[in-house]
């Protein structure tokens, strides 16, 4: 006689998972209904499961984490089967479940349009130590395709499509949406066969299981960078003491979109930025962190992103906030706070530690120069990134001081390490090295070498050899003799290589030459040396703002008819409208940058 199981009706009836639970009745099993107030309290839910001697529990990963923390696996009675669905299972939960013998846990995947599940995997299967959504169920199929609906190779991400008996017929009274999401099956000979476009990113593993890599609509574009929010969330969950994390883009201040991370439980968020910087590029590190006792859940047991609160406008600080101490610091502190969307800032905390980035630095410097009537270069913010340091730099700086390629990054400590000189990439500025200099620490003197011409008055230097000679002369003012430590990204690496060549020819030792993504330029015929101006403007927009002309919806044919200044102005105006460049930026500065970019 088949055994009768006692299963939970844990999902609300308007949640597709409830359909699978209700179908258990057709097979002769019992359903135990969970009251909403019981579902919301982990301790009461555990007591309810013991009272009803539950055999099978359906739940989301968010609900399961709360139950595990409340002691699910230590109770006298544990359901023999856990069916986990509705969200991605994080690595920490996977490890806990894979190590227990008190229950069998299954990770189930399936969109509502393929009710209820399309793929499955037993978490206790020792062949998988990281979360997977497994293989298709019987009578279901899974395909990972590229934008042209062609299968991708093993290990290559693509969009996940599903097929089979579980697919819905379509959307009621929505023929257009049905045609968009349910497409003809390109690999089937069966008449009328269809694929459903899930909108999820996935990839095949070598063993034939599927990795779930998040929603395609959770891929966002910020300051020109494509960012996977799921990747940030996964990195956050590896931080000790964190149970869960959510990342999203918010625009609480108009024109100032930023990444915000929400973590639970309510831990000290100060170390999280450093933790992420060890594994993620700086543009993927959130500007703000919000710690909550628990992430809000909706009625279906999933994280309710709409219920997440706005971040505090208080500046992050590990101690008492130090306010401005004179009129100059008060002015700068106000501009720092306005630019960052904060109520106040600590005058000793770096702009970049407060969540600033290169484009905000452009906006902030424009505001400082406008309020003070000065013409300070962008490099000033990297020499003096805090209010206190910038106020001191302004007091010491002379507007008539001649331009120099040498940019010292921040205040250096008393370290005795030889200085590291890092040459600019093709754009000519040293914005890209701000985080590298910070990571190397105050004991490591760090100098950027920026291109001549950025000030809008001096002329760009024409050749790599001439730039190298100029930069060698400049670095000798700081370090007259070797051994030298040089580096550079992209074009900067090529120039640094030529500098090393010239220094060694002069009898000097070069102890380190760090080439970051640099390569030997291919020879260019004299007839090809004049770059199309529209192409140059487009490449400049990509380099400065991380956007293409297509992203800015510009007519390239029209741009080709304009003079350089007019074409660049058109690009900058479109970039501000698209949010790729802050408003209020003096066009003279980007024009100088473009001339340097074009020369390089």
From TrEMBL:
GO terms for cellular component: cytoplasm. It comes from Corallococcus terminator. Keywords: Phosphopantetheine, Phosphoprotein. GO terms for molecular function: phosphopantetheine binding. One of its GO terms (biological process) is secondary metabolite biosynthetic process. Residues 323-398 form the Carrier domain. The keyword Phosphoprotein applies. It comes from the Bacteria. InterPro entries: AB_hydrolase_fold (IPR029058), ACP-like_sf (IPR036736), AMP-bd_C (IPR025110), AMP-bd_C_sf (IPR045851), AMP-dep_synth/lig_dom (IPR000873), ANL_N_sf (IPR042099), PKS_PP-bd (IPR020806), PP-bd_ACP (IPR009081). PROSITE patterns: CARRIER (PS50075), PHOSPHOPANTETHEINE (PS00012). SMART domains: PKS_PP. Pfam families: AMP-binding, AMP-binding_C, PP-binding, Thioesterase. This is Non-ribosomal peptide synthetase. PANTHER family: FATTY ACID SYNTHASE, NONRIBOSOMAL PEPTIDE SYNTHETASE.
